[in-house]
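Q&A log
Question type: sequence-to-structure
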Amino acid sequence: MLVLGIESSCDETGVALYDTQAGLLAHQLHTQMAMHAEYGGVVPELASRDHIRRVLPLTSACLTDAGRTLADIDAIAYTAGPGLSGALLVGASVANALAFALNKPTVAVHHLEGHLLSPLLADPAPEFPFVALLVSGGHTQLMAVHGVGRYELLGETVDDAAGEAFDKSAKLLGLGYPGGPALSKLADLGDATRFTLPRPMLHSADLDFSFSGLKTAVLNLVKAQDNLDEQTRADICAAFQEAIVEVLAKKCIKAMKQTGLKRLVIAGGVGANRQLREGLNEACSRRGWQVFYPPLHLCTDNGAMIAFAGAQRLQHAQAAGSFAVQPRWDLSTLAAA
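Response status: OK
Response body:
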């Protein structure tokens, strides 16, 4: 089965072709980073308009790269939520229009399920069941994953997600947009021992997270500096990154012990963080656990994860075309495949 996947939930337009026998054949991605940087954050109306401009040319390029035509497509998957309503409607409209013209089925994919299953595109890929740390944009969740659609929420953020804390702290340090990658890069040049930052909820009895207090601590630290030079910025970045990585890693270890599972999966944009990967690799290795990540180029939003998740759903006859999108959509409401 050849599935075309379309991702348009926020500020990146992704298109991909996934074959259930041959794997990922091609994928194209356009980021709106430069456009939104002028405003210091995503402008929803601009994002929607840019998706309209990009999605069909990216689809054509994807088909060319794979040496396929529209007639070869067996089904179309698209992100139906959560995300920006206008941006989601672009992908939904294009997917359903193509499906109607080609007389092919469509499947509405949950954006976070796409991230959650994206490590299955890696080599080697994890087998079910596993514990998953989902750290994508405004989401930080720990889940026990028993199969496609069989997700048990173990813990989640009660306020700011890890990705939000990265971006907001970067903005406080004058690092621009998007701040997360810039903060991580500068942290590599810093001394994490110069400043001490809190580890919110590190020792809580549950598996929940809280990062708003860490962001506030960064704000207070910035205000306390007489001279916020480049080295001081780097040192604050290093201290911040070390704090957030320690919380994420220790909560993952606690979730593994609590569930008794031996495989850990990291998904979402923060999963590309080098320090997080190194910390989890070391912690899991010492305990005889396996840890898996999506390929680096598939950590951020992309069409490949949507095509793959759609293919898993379609293989279980869960195809349904609709123009309805869900800007807010709880992952736990998904039915098992």
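Response note: The mean pLDDT is 93.
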